[in-house]
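re: that chain from earlier
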Amino acid sequence: MGSPVHTKKQQIDYLKKRMSLIQEMLEQMDVNDSSLSDLQRLENMLKQINIKINQFKHDWD
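^ sequence. v structure.
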């Protein structure tokens, strides 16, 4: 997922893939086995998606 995303379709596909990864991560999390670092990793992923969304919004103007 390191290549540039320029078109709206590429941007939506990128976001779908990232959200899918987050969903998979959440499904794998177990209340007894999850740690603070798991939550921090999840938080970081969500922050990165937010950054990308803000970048994509400039292309959609």
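The chain has one domain: 8-60.
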